[in-house]
Amino acid sequence: MKKKIHKIWGVGVVLVLVASLLFAAAPVSAGTLSWSSESIPSDTGKVLASGSDVSDLAVSADGQTIWATDTATPGLYKSTDGGATWSAKTISGATTPQLVAIAPDDPDIVAVVADNYEVYVTTNGGTSWGSLGTVAESGGASATNLYDITISQDDSGTHYIAVVGIETGGLANVWYWNLGAAAPVWKEANDLTGFTGGTSARAVAFSPNFASDKVMVIVSENDTAGTDYIYFQILSLSTKQWNSSAGFTSYPVTMVSGTGLNGLTSASISLSPDYLGSDDSTRIAFVGLDIAGGDTNSGIYRLKDTSQKALKTGVAVKSVAYDGTNLVAGSGDSNATYYSSDPLASSPSVSTTSSLKRAGLGGPVVVAWAGSDVVAGYSGDDSCFAISRDNGKSFNGLSLVDASLTVEDFAISADAGTIYLGTNDGADFSLWRKASSWERVLVLDGKTGMIVRMAPDDPNSVYVADQGTTSMWYSNAGGDTKWFQRSSGYNIQDVAVESADVLYIGVSGAATVSKSTNAGFTWGSAKSTGLVLGNVHMIKSLGEDKLIVGGTTGYVAYSTDGNSSWTKIKKQVNSSSNPVQVTASGLADGDFIYAGTSGTGENIVRWEIGSSTSWSDIINGTLTATTAMGLYGLELYNGVLYALASDGTDSAIFRTLSPSTATSSTTWSYKETTLADNVALNDTPQGLFITSGSTKLWALDTGNNKLYSFTDTLAEAGPTLSAPADGAIIPVNTVSGSAYSVSITWERPSKATKYDYQFALDSDFDEKLSIGTGQVSSTSSTVAYVAPGSNFMPGTTYYWRVRVASDGPLYSPWSEVRSFTVEDLPEPQPPVTIEPAPPAPVIEVPPPPPITLQPPEITLPEPTITLPQPTIQLPPAPAPVAPVPDWAIYAIIIIGAVLVIAVIVLIVRTRRPV
C-alpha cells in the first residue's frame, strides 16, 4: 500500500511542476516600482493660461456654467464645473470676444460682443453660433462701440438681448433683440419717449422679474463741454417709454454731475434679486463707477428707488454684484476687491480685501455671484479666474492663471492630504495648495527663491520664507483666508517647524539658529550650534525641543533643549567639505545619527550617540547608480533609511532596511529615475520628504518643473508564503532513497519581479544550505520554485524563506519562516525465500487385457441375375485452375503468425503455478 501511495505522490509532484510552469506562463501586473510625476498646475483644463486676461464673466443661476472672455490672447472659454476647468470656444467671424452674457433661466442661451460692435448668440451652449448682424435698427444709426450686454429671463417664449454703447455720431444708445420672436430684429431705444440723451451708455441690466415688469435699467453719461452728468435711467418695454414718461417718478436719477468730468471708463449695475419695477419699495440697485482721470466720484453707489447713497468713493469700480445680502465689487484700475455684509444699512461698511488675499497682482477685476460663492476675473500681472468662499473677504486663484511655472519648493502633510507647491514665473512667487484640487493661495510681487514649510501636526499652519532675507509669511488657515507677514530678524538659510507655533531658522551665512514660539511674530537671539567649520546648510526638527543641523562643510550638531545649547560632532562626515544632509532616530544615548554629503561617490555614515568616536560607513561601496551621486535628502521612517542622490543629471533613491546594524559590506538596494533623461532630484537645502500610510517619498525636479513621488510598497513586509504548509511532511522516493522535489510558492507583492530564496537547517538561517540560496525571476501573481529532492536528506527538518531581491526592484523584508520535514526511509524487510516446486507425480497405468474376437462364418448363395453391360460416357475435360497470387500467400502467412502469437500469449496468461 505504501508503494502505491508513493507512486501517487510522485504523480502529484509532477502535476505541481506542471502547474508551476503554467503559473510562470501567465504574467500579471508586469512592471516595477518607479518614480512617477505628480499632477501639478498645468494648462490641462486651462488651469494655466499664459498671457491671458479675464475681461468679462457670465454665470448661470446655479453657478456651475460660467463663460469668460479673454481680450489678451484673445479667446472665449466655457466652464461647466464652476470655473475649475475650461474649454476654449470659437465663433466663426468673431476675432476678439469682449463681453459675454448668459440667460438667467437657461444656461444654453449665451450672447457675446466681439470686435467692439458685433453680437453673436448660441441657444445650445456654444455648439453653434449665429450672428445677429449689424447692431442697428432698420434705417437707424449703427453701433460703433458696445460696453455692456445682458439677457432677460423668458417672457412668453422670448428672451431679450440688450446692448449699450455709442452709435454713429457719438450719441448714447440702447439696442435690444427679441430672441425667440417670429421675426427677431434689432430695436433702438434712444428715440423712445423720456430718454435722456448723452454721449455714451455704459451699463445695462434687465429686472430679475422681467416677465412681470418688463423693465430694463441703464447707466449713461453726458460728457459735454459744460456740466457733465451720469444718469441712472429706467425703461418700460411694455409701454416703450423711459423714466417719468413711463410713470417712474423722478427718473432719470442724476448720480454725478459737475464741470470737467472726464467721462466714464466703465460702469456696472447689480439689481436686488427681488427688484420689481412696479414696486418702488423693491427698486434697489447698486452701481459701480470708474470715472476717468482718478475722479473722486468714482466708487460704489446704492439706489433705493431714487434715493442715492455713496457706499465708497474715491476708488475706481469696474463691477458690482449683490446677492440680496452681501455686496462685492471689483476695482477698475488695480487688483483690489471690496465687500460689504450690510450694504442696505443706513451707514453700511465697505472693506477692502487684504492685499495678500487678492488672487492676482493686476486689474481691473470683474466680479459675480456663483451660487453662494463669489467669482472674479483678474486682468494684468498674474491674472486669473478666482473664487471667494467668504463673501469676497479673500480670493484664491482657481484657473486661467497667467503664469508659466518654475517650481521652487514644496511641503507636504504627514498623510499626504495637503500639498503646498512654491513656484515663480521669473518675476513673482505663487504658492499653490492642493487638498482636492490645486488653488493658488498666495501671490507675491517680485519674489523668487522661497522656502515652503508646514507644521507636522497641523497642515493649515504654513510658512513661506524668502531665503537670504528676513522676510517670512505665515498662515494658520492653509493660506485660504489670511496671511501674516513676519520678519525673522536674521537672514534665513533654512526653516524647521516643530509645531503650529514653534519654529526655528538656520541663519544664512552663519552657524547659528534662532527660535520663535509665537508663529514667527517675535524671535529669540541666534544661538551658536558649535559647528566645527562652516555654516548651517539645513535644519530639521525631530520633535519637541529636538533639532539637528547639517553644515556647509561636512559637520553635524544637535540640540535636545530647543536651541538653548548644542552638541557638536567633531568628526567630519566622509572627510568632505560639502553640504551635509542629516537625520536621526532620536537624540538620546543609544540613538543613531545618519549623514552624508552632496559630494559625489561618497558613503552614508552612522554615529551612535554616547559611544561613537568616529563615523561608521554603513553602505557597501558608495552612492553610485549608473554614475557616482551626491546626497540631497535623507529620511528615516519606520526603521528604514532612505537617501536621495543625484549627479545633477539623473537621480536615485537608495535604502536599507537595517540602518542601525548596517556595515560597510551591507548592500543597499536602489531605484534610479527612468522617466526621462535629466531628472535631477537635487532641490536644496532639503530635497526629500516622506509621508505615512503608503510610505510615499516625494522630491522636486526644479530643472524640469516636476514634482515626483515614489511609493515604497516593499518596505513593510515580505512576500506571503503559500505552500507547502508550515511543518509539512515530504515523502521519500524509496527507489532513489531521497525526498521528492519540493515546490515552494508565494504571492507576488506589489510589482516585484525578482526574488531571493533560502533554505537552512535552523530557523535563524545560520546553517544555510550551500545549494539553498538563489533567485527566481517572475511576474506571475503566484510564484513557484521547485527544489530538487536530492538536496534534502530523509529524517531532516529544513527551514525556508523568500524576499524580493535588491533589483526586483528593491529589497523587501524576509517573509515568515516555514519548515518541512523529509520523512524517514522505511525499515528494510527480511528477504523472501522461494522453494523450488516439487517434481510432478508419476502415474502408472496398467496395460489393458487382450481382447479376442471370434467372427461367425457367413455363406452367400450364387447369384442368379444377369446384369447388363454398362456404358460409361466420359465428361468433358475441366477448365484450367488460376494460380494463387503472391499477396494472398503472404497474407495467409501473416495471419497465421498472428494467430500463433495470440495462442502463445493466451497460454502464458492462463498459466497457473503448480
Q: What's the helix count?
A: 3
Output the CATH topology of one domain.
Neuraminidase
User: Class of one domain in CATH?
Assistant: Mainly Beta
Termini separation comes to 27 Å
Q: Quaternary state, please?
A: single chain
Biggest beta sheet attributes: 5 strands, antiparallel
Total number of strands: 65
Low-confidence stretches: 1-31, 863-868, 870-875, 877-881
The CATH architecture of one domain is 6 Propeller
What's the overall geometry?
flat
* Cα Rg: 48 Å
What class, by secondary structure content? mainly beta
The CATH superfamily of one domain turns out to be: TolB, C-terminal domain
Can you give the mean pLDDT? 90
Portion in helices = under 10%
Sheet-strand content, in percent, reads 35-45%
Describe this entry's structure for a reader.
- The strands form 16 sheets. Strands 14, 15, 16, 17 and 18 form a 5-stranded antiparallel sheet that branches. Strands 59-65-64-61-62 form a 5-stranded mixed sheet, with no helix packed on it.
- Helices cover 6% and strands 41% of the residues.
- The two termini are 27 Å apart.
- The longest helix is centred in the C-terminal third of the chain and has 25 residues, at 886-910.
- It has 3 helices and 65 strands.
- The model is unreliable at 1-31, 863-868, 870-875 and 877-881 (pLDDT under 50).
- A hairpin with a 4-residue loop joins strand 15 (215-222) and strand 16 (227-236).
- Among the domains are: 2-33 and 717-822, Sandwich (Immunoglobulin-like); 90-261, Methylamine Dehydrogenase, Chain H; 410-528, Neuraminidase; 532-712, TolB, C-terminal domain (Neuraminidase).
- By secondary structure, the protein is mainly beta.
